[in-house]
């Protein structure tokens, strides 16, 4: 199966939106990349992660405090992903390529692999958002039915009750299974990954070994197997839940579209920019603290339209995008409150499980 094609861009909207965003950066004399506040935030999050790890492993506190620190370590893992790795892998963290590469490599220390991530996220998800059979982010079979075109199983009638537990498995499943599956099959879903050179192979196996040493061997040696197992489960499950929920609240909602290509032409109805707007939604964009921790990923519309712009600029360019959508009669999807996005996702799962 070949990847689908998009319709030709509507020149007025596509070109006008790109022009307005470009004009904004030119007129404000701003760089599209990160800045000092972003680098300070990244430093705070990474340092907090390191301190929590050291305290847990080498100065293990009384068990209630240790469990709390495991939760915080899981949160910091997600926040590194949102604020450091994500911008770095998209090339927007810094105007210096080596800094972006270093930021992207943060995911390798956490057990995943940036090479595989770039294919899954940058290439597949960002190109074919919510297209069943192509966008691998929709693939939670057989446990969840996320798209109306996916096959329904009896278990799905209960998915709106157990989805949080399933989401919490993401990080552990990703680190210990899916990366290896992509490596062996050389595919992300139906899309082949870029050919790996020798350094990519060395990087893959070296960082996997480093992760095993840091998160399995040393902790087990220091605290024992049973304490490690409980702590690692709490850490990994909480990280997985945070990582998954942020992306699901942006794409798997009642309001978002799940387009399919025409069987005759293998073409999607909309041009790429409009496709992104129809399949993506924002949430809680007025919550500055949430925006800070999530690396602006509650501004998913802005991120999908301009992935090479750092998330620090999303609040500003969202005003430009909203205005353009209004002028061109394009629905801009947004939930003002986090709970409303969560309820929309809950109802989406319930309908797909019972309809």
Describe the structure.
The longest helix has 28 residues, at 63-90. The model has no long low-confidence stretch (mean pLDDT 95). The chain has 15 helices and 4 strands. The strands form 2 sheets. The chain has a two-stranded antiparallel ribbon. A two-stranded parallel sheet has the order 3-4. It has helices spanning 11-28, 36-58, 63-90, 97-104, 106-109, 114-127, 159-168, 170-185, 198-223, 225-251, 272-278, 288-293, 300-305, 314-327, 338-354, and strands at 187-188, 191-192, 282-283, 334-335. It is mostly helical. Helix 2 (36-58) packs antiparallel against helix 3 (63-90), helix 3 (63-90) packs antiparallel against helix 4 and helix 7 (159-168) crosses helix 10. The chain has one domain. A hairpin with a 2-residue loop joins strand 1 (187-188) and strand 2 (191-192).
Taking strands numbered 1, 2, ... along the chain, how are they ordered across the largest sheet?
1-2
Q: Treating each run of at least 4 consecutive H or I residues as one helix, how many helices?
A: 15
Radius of gyration (CA) equals: 21 Å
Order of helices and strands: HHHHHHHHEEHHHEHHHEH
The separation of the N and C termini measures 28 Å
Structural class of the secondary elements? Answer: mainly alpha
Total strands: the figure is: 4
**Could you estimate the helical fraction of the residues in percent?**
55-70%
Q: What can be said about the biggest beta sheet?
A: 2 strands, antiparallel
**Low-pLDDT windows of residues:** none
Which word captures the global form? globular
**Averaging pLDDT over every residue, what do you get?**
95
Number of domains: 1
Strand content: under 5%
Pfam families: FA_desaturase (PF00487)
GO molecular function, one term: oxidoreductase activity
EC number: 1.14.19.-
InterPro entries: FA_desaturase_dom, Fatty_acid_desaturase
């Amino acid at each position: 199966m070949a990847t689908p094609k998009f319709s030709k861009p509507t020149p007025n909207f596509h070109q006008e939106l790109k022009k307005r965003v470009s004009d904004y950066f030119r007129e404000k004399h701003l760089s599209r990349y990160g800045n000092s506040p972003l680098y300070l935030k990244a430093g705070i999050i990474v340092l907090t992660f390191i301190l929590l790890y050291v305290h847990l492993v080498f100065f293990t506190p009384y068990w209630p405090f240790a469990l709390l620190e495991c939760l915080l370590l899981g949160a910091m893992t997600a926040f590194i992903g949102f604020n450091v790795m994500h911008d770095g892998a998209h090339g927007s963290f810094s105007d210096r390529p080596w800094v972006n590469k270093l930021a992207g490599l943060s995911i390798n220390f956490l057990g995943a692999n940036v090479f595989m991530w770039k294919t899954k996220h940058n290439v597949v998800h960002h190109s074919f958002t919510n297209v069943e059979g192509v966008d691998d982010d929709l693939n939670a079979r057989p446990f969840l039915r996320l798209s109306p075109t996916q096959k329904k199983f009896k278990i799905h009638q209960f998915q709106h009750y157990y989805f949080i537990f399933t989401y919490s498995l993401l990080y552990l499943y990703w680190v210990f299974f899916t990366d290896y599956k992509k490596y062996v099959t050389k595919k992300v879903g139906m899309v082949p990954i870029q050919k790996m050179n020798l350094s990519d192979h060395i990087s893959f196996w070296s960082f996997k070994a480093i992760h095993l040493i840091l998160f399995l061997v040393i902790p087990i040696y220091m605290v024992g197997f049973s304490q490690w197992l409980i702590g690692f489960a709490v850490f990994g499950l909480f990280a997985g839940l945070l990582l998954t929920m942020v992306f699901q609240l942006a794409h798997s909602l009642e309001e978002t579209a799940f387009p399919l290509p025409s069987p005759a032409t293998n073409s999607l109805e909309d041009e790429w920019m409009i496709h992104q707007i129809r399949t993506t939604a924002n949430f809680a964009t007025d919550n500055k603290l949430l925006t800070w921790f999530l690396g602006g990923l509650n501004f998913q519309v802005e991120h999908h339209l301009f992935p090479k712009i750092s998330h620090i600029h999303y609040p500003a360019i969202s005003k430009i995008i909203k205005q353009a959508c209004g002028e061109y009669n394009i629905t801009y999807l947004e939930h003002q409150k986090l709970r409303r996005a969560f309820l929309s996702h809950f109802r989406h799962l319930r309908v797909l499980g019972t309809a």
